């Protein structure tokens, strides 16, 4: 469907007051709007976003959109989920929203989006904000869901204009469009970063007819998340997707020479390429902390909020920018789609008086091509001790098969709520790893003080409620092999 770019010519009479003001137009903000309207059906909600687009989901920008065979995908932004069903990255068509200037007068309320406008100042005592065009809007309740900006490497920022022009920081629709175009016009792209985004983009670009190099400081892909043996195994999979991997790589400098970029590594290695994509993490956007007098967490970054996602009595924060207190796992900040859904929804409920703490664990997923995928929940950090229990995979154990069965493509648990009561263990005993080098499917437990705080389901799908329950229970387990049986991984 057609999305008008910007609802807001200068002549429009913008609302001077919004009962619910949501700053930021991403997933968390949209989830909050939906949640507010569900609990307060007449609610008038105003979303203010500095992007030109209506709220959309980001995961397909590094996942499914790259696998589309529709040449006009950069325009339509429609993608086939692994299960073959098509959808748009926009949560709702423009007809779902009301025009901002109608917000005051509309009888049953609704959700309005101000696109291309940035909130630059927050007057917390006066309950109002100022936009970059000096417009003031007052609010009764406010959500900050400003997300983050992609980090760059200082050596690239210092390298000058020509290098910066050939570097993509990947976050938005416009970045997807420009990288797609670059990939059709250059011979070599180098991705710096070994995490989710870097690895997903490497696999996506690896399928195109160009040289794709991925470099990172760790020993293997996802090295900060996966235990070393699994990280190494994943790296081999990424290589099979046509990607050249350069590991233990620390960038010393980047220069432009003979129309090529030269990346000099600290150990003396030299890499020549046409274009760089930096995927080295996100800097939470806390621009409003100063004017709003809001606390920023010194360890995790982001606005510091309580277990109800509250920064002040009528200000909440959700999504990437929220450093929240998880009553199970302690102080955290999480950068994932499903967390944006879960925290946005919770903030919306609390903005309408629910007073609920954060305890429902969000999950995240990463697919490296259609054959390797995993879902994870809780704190998954490779510096924690881990226990992995594996079994042989069958053809059913792929992301493609899983979404075909479940019928959802965006594997956000929160969209398809399911609760595990006491799970029934499968009775067939099986060896821990049948083949040491074939991690076909399995469960990896992450431990802190002998308690499971994180779980990765490796090519094991639609079992997230079981994992969520184990973390929620927070018990010490004598034998994790027994716990692994709850996931029925040994069944064909």
UniProtKB/TrEMBL annotation:
Pfam families named among the record's database cross-references: AIF_C, Pyr_redox_2
Any one cellular-component term (Gene Ontology): mitochondrial inner membrane
Catalytic reactions on record: A + NADH + H(+) = AH2 + NAD(+)
Mitochondrial apoptosis-inducing factor C-terminal domain residues: 347-473
Region listing for Disordered, in residue ranges: 398-419
Entry keyword annotation includes Cell division: no
A GO molecular function held by the record: FAD binding
Protein name: Apoptosis-inducing factor 1, mitochondrial
